[in-house]
Amino acid sequence: MLTAIAIALGGYYYYTRPFSPDRERFPVRGIDVSHHQGKIDWRRVAADDVAFAIIKATEGGDHVDDAFAGNLREARAAGLAVGAYHFFTFCRPGADQAKNFIATVPRDKPLLPPVVDIEFHGNCPQRPSPGQLAAELQAFLDPVEAAFGKPAILYLTDEADEAYKDHVAERRRWIRSLQLAPIESDWIYWQYHDQGSVDGIEGDVDLNVLKGDRAALNELFAPVPESSSPGTPPSP
């Protein structure tokens, strides 16, 4: 009994300990947020060694995160490189989801590449076949990448990655590898903690690093030439 308790406590400590990747190898830190983080003091976040923020914009074909516009505006004003992500649902056509994302995320100022979040948790109960998922994802990517002028980045949790990784479009990846360095080499963001702490946010927040230095972040965040950027919705 005592051994089992010791193992459980050891596992809890390992998972929740303040792990942080080596700063010399990964000097650029970032967070990803949604309305779940509540009101964020972005000035304090920026002062706590956070350089970029990926902010939830949309989900499915009609849901908009009610904190998105404010988070995007205030994070940008605080000097962070900002980007938007979409939670991809299995129960709406990819084209409908693309329309929702494009209509919600303003394109009149620089943005990090759009991100597509594919996971089973919190998704529709139906599970598309790899072929069906690939087709619907492509129906999302084509108009979104045309609108934003940058290749998207894909985020897949372990379960979704195992089911679909050999079938989805080839894009740079956002790897979720809690407490351990990624085994993969083809990633651009690494989410290393989902119960992290950052000044300016009450409660837990996802912590990430960029693969590269500030120059790599600046390249990702660089504005798209006007000739390749379609008409834009108004900025929030």
Structure explained in plain terms:
This protein has 236 residues and is an alpha/beta fold. It has one domain (26-223): TIM Barrel. The chain contains seven helices and nine strands; from the N terminus they run αβαββαβαβαβαβββα. The protein has an eight-stranded mixed barrel, surrounded by four helices. A hairpin with a 3-residue loop joins β2 (52-59) and β3. α4 runs parallel beside α5 (130-148). It is globular. The termini are far apart.
Describe the structure using short key phrases.
TIM Barrel; alpha/beta; eight-stranded mixed beta barrel; 7 helices; globular
| CATH homolog superfamily | Glycosidases
For the largest beta-sheet, the strand count, sense and barrel status come to:
8 strands, mixed, barrel
Which residues form runs of ≥5 with pLDDT under 50? 4-16
The strand count comes to 9
Strand residues, percent:
15-25%
Structural class: alpha/beta
Helix fraction, binned, reads: 25-40%
The level-1 CATH class: Alpha Beta
Number of helices: 7
What is the correct CATH architecture? Alpha-Beta Barrel
- Taking all residues together, what is the mean pLDDT? 89
Taking all Cα atoms into account, the compactness measure Rg is 18 Å
Q: CATH fold name, please?
A: TIM Barrel
SSE run: HEHEEHEHEHEHEEEH
Intertermini distance: 56 Å
Query: What overall geometry do the principal axes of the alpha carbons give?
Result: globular
Q: Total domains, how many?
A: 1
Order of strands across the main sheet = 1-2-4-5-6-7-8-9
